[in-house]
Every structure is written in structure tokens, then in C-alpha cells.
Amino acid sequence: MIFSETPLRGAYLIDVERRGDDRGFFGRVFCEKEFATRGLATRFIQINNSLSAIKGTLRGMHYQLPPKAETKLVRCIRGSLHDVILDLREGSPTFGKSFSATLSAENRRMMYIPKGFAHGFITMDDDTEALYLVDEFYAPDRERGVRWNDPRFEMTWPVVPVAISDKDRSQRDFNPAWHLGSGGPS
Length: 186
Description:
The chain has three helices and 14 strands.
């Protein structure tokens, strides 16, 4: 695996290091030892699968509050998506900064998203499918969201969304009070 740190400390793009011949290739997408040597999560307890039928489907920006904050490892297994992460860690020098990358079935790239980040994506092809490995169980009472186009943050999206869930469409602008767990939208 080839780990490339993003400008947001603790977040990585991970590429499969392929060993191949005329039959195809072999490559690892996870190795506990390699993740541990970088101080990354090594215990994933849930694998989620999403399918977005329409190009331009936006999902996000989602996160969970401590103690149920999630680390995610995201990979696109069909089609392609523009993956966006937003640093919401208190005291982080990159608080409020975002990073994005294209994940596709073709490039097999993964995004490692540490706890304290909001995450979302927009699909760049019809029938785009993603797998997420997470290290915490879903906790609806700890779930929060940030509006995908909140003017406080400079998140960039390559296309205008054509499909957004009612839940994601109704997210409000970021409010530090509910981010810290004192109620608010979920």
C-alpha cells in the first residue's frame, strides 16, 4: 500500500501497490501492521455499502460526536466519486479546512478519514458504489451533519448536485454549540 498524507493531518489517500503479470495483479487494501505503524485505526467493526443510481448524487457531510466518533476507510468499487472531508477537530490547525480527491473503481484509491472529520461525496457516474469501513457503530443520537455548501467552509464540488436526500438538504449551517454535543440538528 502507498500512503499519501493529505494537507489535513491524520487523513490519508491510500493506493493499492499492485504486483502483476499477464493474469492481472494482486494488491493489499488493508494491513494491520502498516496501519498501526502510522498510528491509524486497525479495528474496523462495520462495513457499509452505498449505491447511488444517478450521476450527481450528493451524500454528506456526515459525522458522529464522541464517544461514537468514527474513523472511516472509503473505497469506490464501481463508477467514480468526488470524496470530500472537512476537519472539525477542536484545536486543529486545519479546523474548517477541506480536502477532496477522486475515488474510482479504476484507480482503486481509498480515503482514510480520522475521527473528528465530516465526510461526504458526489457521484461522477451513474450506478456508483462505495464501501466504507468504520471503527464505531452507528449512533443516531450522536450523528451530526454540515450543509454541503455551508459558506463558512470552502468545500469544492466539481458538479452541481442533482439528487440530495431530504436529510442532507435540510442540514443547517455549522453551529459550534451543537457540534460540541449540546443538542441541535442530527
